[in-house]
Amino acid sequence: MNAKLKPLQMIHLALCFFVFLFAIVTILINRNQLYFDANPANTAPFNPIFPIVGLISLSVSIIAFKNLLTKIDQAAAVDSKINQYQTAFIVSSALLEGGALFNLVGTFVSQNAFFLIFAAVNLIFLIRNRPTKDKLISALQLQYPDTEIL
Predict the structure, then answer these.
(1) For the chain, what is the largest distance between any 2 Cα atoms, rounded to a whole number of angstroms?
(2) DSSP 49
(3) Neighbour-count burial for 64-97, b at 16+ CB within 10 Å, e otherwise
(4) pTM for this one?
(5) How far apart are alpha carbons 53 and 55 in whole angstroms?
(6) pLDDT for residue 150
(7) Helix (H/G/I), strand (E/B), else coil: 43
(8) pLDDT in tens, 90-142
C-alpha cells in the first residue's frame, strides 16, 4: 500500500503546499494595496468571473471524481483499480488546485481580497481530499483478500 499510496500523498502535499505558498506570496506582495469589496459594480471586469470559476471547478472536481470511480471495473485486478483511483484523484485535485490558483491570480491582479475566500474554499476541499488507506478501501469497495494485499 505504501508503494501505491505514498506517491499520491506526496502529490497531494505538493499541490496543497504550492497553493498555500502562492497565497502567502500574493498577500505579502499586495499587503499594502489589498482591499475587500464584494460589490460587482466596483470590481466589474473580475467579479463574478473568479468566484464562479472557483465554484465551478469545485463542482466539476467532485463530479469528475465520482464519474471516474464509477467507471472502475470491480472485476479488475487490485493494481488496476488502484491505478484508476490515482487517476481520478489527480484529476480531481488538479481541478481544485486550478480553481484556487485562478482566484489567487484574481487577487494578485485586482488586489481585491474577496477572491481569497474562493481560493480558500478550493484549498480547504483540496486538503480535505487527502488520500488515505481507508478512503481508498471505501472508494474501491475492496474486500478481505484485496485489503490484505494493501
Answers:
(1) 60
(2) H
(3) ebeebbeebeeeeeeeebbebbbebbbbbbbbbb
(4) 0.89
(5) 6
(6) 58
(7) coil
(8) 999 999 999 999 999 999 998 999 999 999 999 999 999 999 888 888 888 87
